[in-house]
Specification:
380 residues; 9 helices; alpha+beta; six-stranded mixed β-sheet
Length: 380
């Protein structure tokens, strides 16, 4: 396997559209790294530049220590799996998987051994004589994976390979790809717009927007400590609640967050000089839906929000409750299914701020002011 390094890589279209903006990242040997972001954020363009399918305008790309800026795709020792399976309809499963090896002139015995090995890994042994039209969507995707595996490349590249599958099959294929990564120990770069795929599959995830890396970190770090408002609003289902307001000095040494719907004590955020720096400045308080809506009996004197229940979405084991507060602000609570809410009713929901984040309203960046209730040292 191999390390992949991108140094200050840029890509423009039409001279003035900057699709990828000074992208610098190291993909570690054997890592499964996921590029995630909304449509048009530059993730697929980045993957195609690594593959050599798009020329870079500036910067450097290295695979296993070798500069590949001007190396043709076929000589980069990579294998790419696309959203479209791109199988030859007139060829059997065996021939589809073997075709690339035949073009490279490998001996028949080695081709057969590689295809059989890949088929065993992917559970395709009984399907080798079938044509693509005789396969399900998941089976076709496994054949496309097998075609990549037989090449034994240094790097696997995946461009939204599960997008054409139904929801159940996507869950199964996510698990299959995770098992495949563990078994091969391969360097893999995976592109998706689906944050669930990113969270469940990646050793690290790279959140992109407008061609720029917003955050690169392990999934739980991105979820618990988003680098900015964009990441907070993109990662998580439902997304992090974001209240606009300002931090002020409160009574008894406890700072408060004042927003359109009221005042919330920032218990545990005794950051002293850290918080004083932002007193009176526009700020954004972020907390996850699961931090909102624990049983009212547990409220005590903790922070809370009050408003009108707008939408109730039963999800089975849990329920999503949308609450309108302070005029037009909305928050979403993820509560247990046995808690009953009715649209149009009034509700007061306590908020657990132990994992909350405070963002600068102007830059959108997280300010690094942590809550000591989690035993995390404060930083400015």
């Amino acid at each position: 396997m191999a390390e992949v390094v991108l140094k200050d890589v840029c890509k423009r279209y039409g001279g003035d559209v900057l699709a990828v903006d000074h992208f610098s990242l190291t993909v570690r040997d054997g890592e499964l790294l996921v590029l995630v972001g909304p449509s048009g954020c530059g993730k697929s363009t980045t993957l195609r530049m690594i593959a050599g399918l798009e020329e870079i305008d500036s910067g450097e790309i290295l695979i296993d220590g070798r500069l590949v800026n001007h190396v043709p795709p076929k000589d980069r020792d990579i294998a790419m799996v696309f959203q479209n399976y791109a199988l030859y309809p007139h060829m059997t499963v065996f021939d589809n998987m073997a075709f690339g090896l035949k073009l490279r002139g490998l001996p028949k015995s080695e081709i057969s051994a590689r295809v059989r090995e890949a088929a065993e890994i992917l559970g395709l042994g009984e399907l080798m004589k079938r044509l693509p039209k005789q396969l399900s969507g998941g089976q076709r995707q496994r054949v496309a994976l097998g075609r990549a595996i037989v090449r034994k490349p240094k790097v696997f590249l995946f461009d939204e390979p599960l997008s054409n599958l139904d929801a159940k099959m996507r869950v199964e294929m996510r698990a299959e790809l995770n098992r495949l990564h563990r078994r091969l120990g391969a360097t893999m770069i995976y592109v998706t717009h689906d944050q669930v795929e990113a969270m469940t599959m990646g050793d690290r995830i790279v959140v992109m927007d407008r061609g720029v890396i917003q955050q690169a970190a392990p999934p739980l770090e991105v979820y618990r400590r988003p680098a900015n408002v964009f990441v907070a609003g993109f990662i998580g289902t439902p997304a992090m609640n974001l209240l606009e307001g300002q931090v002020e000095q409160g009574g008894a040494g406890v700072p408060v967050f004042r927003y359109g719907g009221g005042v919330m004590p920032l218990t545990g955020f005794d950051g002293g000089a850290c918080l004083e720096k932002i007193y009176g400045r526009p700020a954004i308080l972020g907390f996850r839906p699961e931090a909102l809506g624990v049983s009212p009996e547990a409220a005590d004197s903790a922070a809370s929000v009050s408003g009108t229940v707008d939408v109730v979405e039963p999800m089975g084991a849990e329920t999503y409750v949308q609450l309108v507060i302070g005029g037009n602000m909305r928050v979403v609570a993820r509560v247990a299914s046995d808690q009953v809410f009715e649209a149009g009713s009034k509700a007061v929901l306590p908020v657990d701020l132990s994992d909350a984040c405070i963002f600068d309203a102007e830059s959108g960046n997280e300010l690094g002011i942590k809550n000591r209730m989690q035993g995390v040292l404060l930083s400015c």
